[in-house]
Structures are given as structure tokens and as C-alpha cells.
């Protein structure tokens, strides 16, 4: 079950990686590959890749020493999706996190959760703007945590 506490822990994981995701072009929701080269990771992606938010999550977990998903070569953003789902306690399908957010648009904040791993529009309240940076996405996850906490206090979830 997804809880506000799990979302807050997800946000904390992202916060560790934010300083490395601030340069121009550090977020590309259409990029499925995640570079395993630490030199590209720390110096602006010299290999030419950028990461979607699941890719950044994978790198944050690697940075924490809590994942060895990147050992042995390049990985897909799906490795990051798997870690996010594990950390959120969702294991029913490959799209469990997307399904939860889609079924709870009031908690997610918009009707575009199906695009969570491929489009910036999934991370904007009411789709008024597009998320441009990883910080925008992390801010959206913070709002999801706040909405969940309010729902938990009210006994709605």
C-alpha cells in the first residue's frame, strides 16, 4: 500500500541526487537508457545521455549504495521503475505505480499519471505547465505525499 511515509522516503532519495540533475538538459522523459559511467553521471553526461525521472531514481539508489542495478552495463529506466515500486510497496504488475496514480487522480494531482515515465505533463497540477526539471518532478511527489497525508488523517485511504 502506498503511504505518505513511503512517498516522503521516495522524495528523500530524489533529494540526494538533485544537485547532479540541475544542469541544462538533465531531464529527458523520453530517454529510456541510463548511463552506468560515473564520469558522465558527475560531469554533465559526456556520453550524451540524460535521464528520465526513473533513471535518476536508479542513479540515486546507486549513489546510496542500495542498488547494484548498474553493474555490468547500461540499464533501462525500467530498473528505476522497479526500485520505485519496491520502495512504494507496489508489486502487482510492471505498471502498479502508474495504475495506483491513475486510479487516484485526486491524490496524484492530475489525469495524466499514465505518462509518469515518459511525459513531463504527468507532473503538473491540472496540466497547467510542464515539468522542466527533476526538481519540478520532486516537488510534484511532495504534493502527492501531502495529499496522501491529508487523506490518511481523514481516514479516506
Notable characteristics:
3% strand; globular; 2 strands; mainly alpha; single chain; two-stranded antiparallel ribbon; 157 residues; 7 helices
What's the gist of this structure?
By secondary structure, this protein is an all-alpha fold. It has helices spanning 4-17, 38-42, 53-63, 77-88, 96-103, 105-108, 134-153; strands at residues 33-34, 75-76.
Characterization of the model:
- This protein is mainly α and 157 residues long.
- The protein has one domain.
- The chain is built from seven helices and two strands.
- The protein has helices at 4-17, 38-42, 53-63, 77-88, 96-103, 105-108, 134-153, and strands spanning 33-34, 75-76.
- It has a two-stranded antiparallel sheet.
- Helix 1 (4-17) packs across helix 3, helix 1 runs antiparallel to helix 7 and helix 3 crosses helix 4 (77-88).
- The longest helix has 20 residues, at 134-153.
- The protein is globular and about 45 Å long.
- Residues 38-48 have low confidence and may be disordered.
Amino acid at each position: 500500500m502506498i503511504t505518505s511515509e513511503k512517498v516522503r522516503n521516495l522524495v528523500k532519495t530524489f533529494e540526494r541526487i538533485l544537485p547532479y540533475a540541475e544542469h541544462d538538459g538533465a531531464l529527458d522523459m523520453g530517454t529510456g537508457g541510463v548511463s552506468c559511467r560515473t564520469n558522465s553521471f558527475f560531469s554533465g553526461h559526456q556520453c550524451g545521455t540524460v535521464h528520465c525521472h526513473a533513471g535518476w531514481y536508479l542513479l540515486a539508489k546507486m549513489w546510496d549504495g542500495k542498488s547494484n542495478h548498474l553493474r555490468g552495463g547500461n540499464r533501462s529506466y525500467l530498473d528505476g521503475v522497479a526500485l520505485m515500486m519496491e520502495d512504494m510497496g507496489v508489486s502487482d504488475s510492471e505498471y502498479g505505480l502508474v495504475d495506483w496514480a491513475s486510479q487516484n487522480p485526486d491524490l496524484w494531482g492530475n489525469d495524466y499519471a499514465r505518462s509518469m515515465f515518459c511525459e513531463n505533463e504527468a507532473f503538473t497540477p491540472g496540466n497547467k505547465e510542464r515539468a522542466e526539471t527533476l526538481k519540478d518532478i520532486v516537488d510534484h511527489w511532495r504534493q502527492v505525499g501531502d495529499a496522501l497525508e491529508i487523506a490518511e488523517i481523514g481516514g479516506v485511504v
